[in-house]
Write a structure and sequence with these properties.
The complex is a heterodimer of chains A (455) and B (353). Chain A is α/β, with parallel strands linked by helices and 455 residues long. Chain A has three domains: 197 residues, P-loop containing nucleotide triphosphate hydrolases (Rossmann fold, 3-Layer(aba) Sandwich); 122 residues, no CATH class; 91 residues, CobW-like, C-terminal domain (Hypothetical Protein Yjia, Chain: A,domain 2). Chain A has ten helices and 25 strands. The longest helix of chain A has 15 residues. Chain A is globular. Chain B is mainly beta and 353 residues long. Helices cover 1% and strands 50% of the residues of chain B. Chain B contains one helix and 32 strands. In chain B, strands 1-32-31-30 form a four-stranded antiparallel sheet. A four-stranded antiparallel sheet of chain B has the order 2-3-4-5, with no helix packed on it. Chain B starts with a helix and ends in a 6-residue tail after the last strand. The chains are: A alpha/beta (455), B mainly beta (353). At the A-B interface, helix 2 of A face loops of B.
Chain lengths: 455, 353
C-alpha cells in the first residue's frame, strides 16, 4: 500500500460487472471511443464486439483459483494474474485497465486478486467496482440470484441503466432497494450507458485517503416502523381511513408531543419510546376501534372492506402517529369530518429487513474513542466468523490516544488500514459501514460499542 | 576444478560482458556445449548471443503481442520460441531465419521446452500440451487439463505439467496421462529433482509442494511471504532452494522422510524479494537474484556459511533469470530492464576481511 505522502503510481483498475444485457459492452465501447487521451487496456471475459485501434483488448477465460485451505478470501482469478502479469512486463504503459467480468461472475475473487497477489498489488490498484444494473430486468434477479446481489454489494458505482424502460415509481423503489443493500455506492441513472467518464473512472473506491461518505439515512438503525406524521389537532375525534393494501394488519403508535422543542428534536425522543412500544404487547383493533395517543401499540386489522379507525385527541395539541407500513400503501388519510387534516411534518424510516439472507448495509456511528486491543479482538473475531458474508467494509475510527483518524477498508477477511489526517477540532467519532449478507445490526452495534475505551 | 578452488573461500563476481534483450526478460536458455545464450523479452525480439562474450549472434523478431518462452535445441543450432500469438517458431541460432512456424491452435503459448535429446519439442498452450517431433510433425496433444497449464518440464521421456487442480505426467507415445497428482491449488512452477524422485512446485498460495513421483505422496511447505515462483534443485537432487520472499530457503530432501518436519536452511541477505535462484552444476553453490537487482552467491551446505560468499551490486532492475556456466565459473543474469549480464565467478585473490 502507498504511504500517506507518496502519490500512488500504480495503474488503476476498474472492474465492470453486471448481468448479461445490462449494458456492459455499450459502456465499454463508450469508454474506449471517448476522446479522453488515455491509454486503456481491456480484459474481456465475455466476448463482445469491442475493438478500438489504439487500445489493447485481451480476451480471457475466467479461471478461479481456490486454495486448498478452503479460505474463500484466498480465492483469486488466475487468468487475471497471468494476463496482467504479462501486461505489466511490457514497455508500453497503460493509464487504465478495465476488466469486464461475465454476467454471472462473483466480483470477490476479482477484487481479491489485487490484494492477495503481491505482483498484482505492487503494480496495480483497484480503483473501483462499477456495476451495471438493467433497471427493468433486475427485479427478476435481485431477490434470488446471489451473483446479482454480490455485484451490487461490491460496487462503488452502480449505473442504473435502461431507465427509459421503467417508470419513476419503479425506479425510486429500485433505488431504495439497492441503497438498502449497498449504502456506499453512488447510484447513477443512465440510458444507453451514457455517463461521464469521471463517474466510472477515478472513483477511488478503495482509496483510504478518500474519507468515508456515509449517507446519514443509512447510519440510522432499522426501525420497526416506516413512517411518522405530525399534525396539530384540536381536542376531538378524528378518523383514520384506509383502503385495502398489501398487508392484512398494521401496527400504529400515537403520541402527544410536548411542544417545548422543535418537531425533529421531539420526534427523536419519541422514536426511542416508540421502538420499545413496538416490541410491547399489542392491542388489537378492528375497524371502528379507537387509537389512543398514549404510546400503546395498536394492531389494526385490515381485512374488512371499510376501514375506519378513530384517533382520539383528548386535548388540543401536537400529535404524532407512527405506522408500521407507509400509509401510501393503504392510501391512508386522517380526516376531520370530511376534511383531510394537514400534516406539519412527515418522515420515513428505514425498515427492518425482512429476509435474513438479504444483502444489506449496516452503518454505525458512535462518538468516543476506541480501545485498540478490544477493537482488534472484535474485528478479528468478526472477520474470522463472518468474513465470507462481509463483502465490503469501510470506516473512519477514533483510537484512544491517537491524534489522527484511523481509516480502513476491507474485502471479506482482507483488511487494509492506516492513520490518516489529524482530527484537529473535529468531533472525534467512529463511523463504519459493513455491506454483506446475514448482517445482524444489533449484534454489530453492540459488539462495536464494547470496543469503546472506558472513560 | 572450480569447486575445490571456491570451497570455503570468498568469491568475486566480476561483470565481464553485457547485452540488451530489448525488454523485460521472461525466459533465458543456455546451450552449454555450444556456448549459446538465448533470451526472450516480454515485448521485444528474441536475442541469441555467444555465451562467453554475449555478442549477439542474431536477433529474431518477437511474437505478436509478446514472447513468453525460449528453448535451445541440443545441437545449439536451433532455438524454439513461444508467444502470445499462440505460435511456436523454430529458428536458426546462427542467422535467425525462421525454419518452422507451428500453430498451437490454442489461445496463447505459455512455455516451450525441447526434449534433452532435441528430438521432441513440447509447448504448453491454454489447457493443452503439444509435442512435435524434429520435423515439426505433431505427435501429441495432451489434455485438456482442468485449467490453464502454467509450466511443463521433461524428465527423460516423461513430461510433467502443472495446472490448477493437478500435476500431470505424460509419456511419449501415450495419449493419456500416465499419472495425475491431484491438488486443489494453483501450482505455478514445476521442477523435477535431477534424480527423478521428486517433482517440486511453487504455488500461488505461498507454499512449496513436494510430490514423491513413485508413491504419489505429497508434502506441503508453508511459511512463505509470497507466491513461490523461484525453485532450484542442486545437481545431486538432495537440496531444493526456494524463493517466495526475501529469504531463500533450502530444503534437505535426503533420507526416507525427505524434507518432512525438517528445518530448512534460511539465507538472510536480500533486501528485496528473491526473484531468481540457480544451483551450480557441481557442489552446491547457490546463486540468488532479487527484485532490486542484487545477485548473491552462497555456499550454504559445504561451508556451512549462511552469509553470501560473493555478491554483485544491485543495478535496480529485477533479476528475472540466473544460469551457471557448465564449469560453474560464470553466471549469466537477465533483468527486467532487458539486460543480459555475464559475471565471472572467481575466488578472491586478496583477503580484505
Amino acid at each position: 500500500m502507498n504511504s500517506l505522502n507518496e502519490p500512488d503510481s500504480r495503474t488503476p483498475v476498474t472492474i465492470l460487472t453486471g448481468f448479461l444485457g445490462s449494458g456492459k459492452t455499450t459502456l465499454l465501447n463508450r469508454i474506449l471511443t471517448e476522446n479522453h487521451g488515455k491509454r486503456i487496456a481491456v480484459i474481456e471475459n465475455e466476448f463482445g464486439e469491442v475493438g478500438v485501434d489504439h487500445e489493447l483488448v485481451i480476451g480471457a477465460e475466467e479461471e478461479i483459483f481456490e486454495m486448498n485451505n478452503g479460505c474463500i478470501c484466498c480465492t483469486v482469478r488466475g487468468d487475471l494474474i497471468r494476463i496482467l502479469g504479462k501486461l505489466m512486463k511490457r514497455k508500453d504503459r497503460f493509464d487504465y485497465i478495465l476488466i469486464e467480468t461475465t454476467g454471472m461472475a462473483d466480483p470477490g475473487p476479482v477484487v481479491q486478486t489485487f490484494f492477495m497477489d503481491d505482483e498484482m498489488k505492487e503494480h496495480l490498484r483497484v480503483d473501483g467496482v462499477v456495476t451495471l444494473v438493467d433497471a427493468r430486468h433486475i427485479v427478476q434477479h435481485i431477490d434470488t440470484q446471489s451473483e446479482a446481489q454480490e455485484q451490487i454489494a461490491f460496487a462503488d458505482v452502480i449505473l442504473l441503466n435502461k431507465v427509459d424502460l421503467v417508470n419513476d415509481d419503479e425506479l425510486a423503489r429500485l433505488e431504495t432497494r439497492i441503497q438498502s443493500m449497498n449504502s456506499e455506492a453512488r447510484i447513477v441513472r443512465t440510458q444507453n450507458a451514457a455517463v461521464d467518464m469521471e463517474t466510472v473512472l477515478n472513483v477511488g473506491g478503495f482509496d483510504l485517503a478518500r474519507a468515508l461518505t456515509v449517507d446519514e439515512k443509512f447510519l440510522e438503525p432499522e426501525y420497526p416502523f416506516e413512517y411518522s406524521g405530525v399534525c396539530r389537532l384540536a381536542a376531538g375525534h378524528y378518523q383514520l381511513v384506509l383502503e385495502e393494501g398489501p398487508d392484512p394488519a398494521m401496527s400504529v403508535v400515537a403520541y402527544r408531543l410536548s411542544e417545548t422543542e422543535p418537531i425533529p428534536a421531539e420526534l427523536e425522543r419519541a422514536v426511542e419510546a416508540v421502538v420499545l412500544a413496538f416490541s410491547d404487547d399489542e392491542e388489537v383493533l378492528d375497524t371502528g376501534g379507537t387509537i389512543r395517543p398514549d404510546g400503546t401499540r395498536f394492531r389494526l386489522n385490515l381485512w374488512e372492506s371499510e376501514l375506519r379507525f378513530i384517533l382520539d385527541a383528548p386535548t388540543d395539541g401536537r400529535y404524532v402517529l407512527f405506522t408500521e407500513h407507509h400509509p401510501d400503501e393503504f392510501s391512508a388519510r386522517l380526516l376531520d369530518g370530511d376534511t383531510a387534516v394537514s400534516l406539519d411534518h412527515e418522515r420515513e424510516y428505514k425498515p427492518d429487513h425482512e429476509h435474513d439472507e438479504a444483502v444489506t448495509s449496516v452503518g454505525i456511528t458512535i462518538p468516543g474513542d476506541l480501545d485498540p486491543e478490544r477493537l482488534n479482538d472484535w474485528l478479528g473475531n468478526l472477520l474470522r466468523i463472518q468474513g465470507p458474508d462481509i463483502f465490503r467494509m469501510k470506516g473512519v475510527l477514533s483510537i484512544k490516544g491517537a491524534p489522527q483518524r484511523y481509516v480502513f477498508q476491507g474485502v471479506h477477511m482482507l483488511f487494509d488500514g492506516r492513520a490518516d489526517r489529524p482530527w484537529g477540532g473535529d468531533e472525534r467519532k467512529n463511523t463504519l459501514v459493513f455491506i454483506g449478507r446475514n448482517l445482524d445490526r444489533m449484534e454489530l452495534v453492540e459488539g462495536f460499542r464494547e470496543c469503546l475505551a472506558s472513560a | 576444478m572450480p569447486r575445490e578452488r571456491m570451497s570455503g573461500g570468498r568469491l568475486d563476481l566480476e561483470r565481464v560482458a553485457a547485452a540488451h534483450a530489448g525488454g523485460h526478460v521472461v525466459d533465458l536458455a543456455w546451450q552449454r556445449e555450444r556456448s549459446i545464450v538465448a533470451a526472450a523479452s516480454a515485448d521485444g525480439p528474441i536475442l541469441v548471443t555467444d555465451a562467453d562474450t554475449l555478442a549477439p549472434r542474431c536477433e529474431i523478431p518477437g511474437h505478436g503481442m509478446g514472447n513468453s518462452s525460449v528453448s535451445l535445441h541440443a545441437s545449439g543450432a536451433l532455438v524454439a520460441t513461444g508467444g502470445q500469438d499462440a505460435q511456436v517458431r523454430i529458428c536458426s541460432t546462427a542467422s535467425g531465419v525462421v525454419h518452422q512456424t507451428l500453430s498451437t491452435g490454442g489461445p496463447w503459448c505459455e512455455r516451450v521446452r525441447y526434449h534433452q535429446s532435441g528430438k521432441y519439442l513440447a509447448a504448453a498452450t491454454g489447457r493443452h500440451v503439444l509435442v512435435w517431433d524434429a520435423d515439426g510433425e505433431l505427435l501429441h496433444r495432451w489434455g485438456p487439463h482442468a485449467s490453464t497449464v502454467a509450466d511443463i518440464a521433461w524428465y527423460g521421456d516423461v513430461l510433467a505439467s502443472a495446472a490448477y487442480g493437478a500435476i500431470t505426467t505424460w509419456g511419449l507415445g501415450g495419449e493419456t496421462a500416465t499419472r495425475v497428482y491431484p491438488w486443489k491449488g494453483a501450482s505455478l512452477r514445476l521442477l523435477w529433482s535431477p534424480t527423478g524422485r521428486f517433482i517440486a512446485t511453487g504455488d500461488q498460495d505461498s507454499t512449496v509442494h513436494f510430490w514423491y513421483v513413485d508413491s504419489g505422496k505429497d508434502l506441503q511447505m508453508y511459511g512463505y511471504q509470497t507466491k513461490v515462483l523461484e525453485l532450484a534443485w542442486d545437481a545431486g537432487g538432495r537440496y531444493l532452494a526456494t524463493g517466495g520472499g526475501t529469504v531463500p530457503v533450502i530444503w534437505d530432501c535426503a533420507g526416507p522422510k525427505g524434507p518432512e518436519n525438517s528445518r530448512p536452511i534460511e539465507l538472510v541477505y536480500h533486501g528485496a524479494p528473491v526473484s531468481s535462484l540457480a544451483f551450480s552444476h557441481r557442489g552446491a553453490l547457490l546463486a540468488s537474484g532479487d527484485r532490486a537487482g542484487e545477485v548473491a552467491v552462497w555456499d550454504p551446505i559445504e561451508s556451512d556459511r549462511l552469509t553470501p560468499v560473493g555478491a554483485a551490486a544491485a543495478d535496480g532492475s529485477e533479476i528475472t533469470a540466473l544460469l551457471w556456466s557448465a564449469d560453474d565459473t560464470a553466471l549469466v543474469a537477465a533483468t527486467a530492464d532487458g539486460a543480459v549480464i555475464r559475471y565471472e565467478v572467481a575466488s578472491r585473490t586478496t583477503d580484505i576481511s
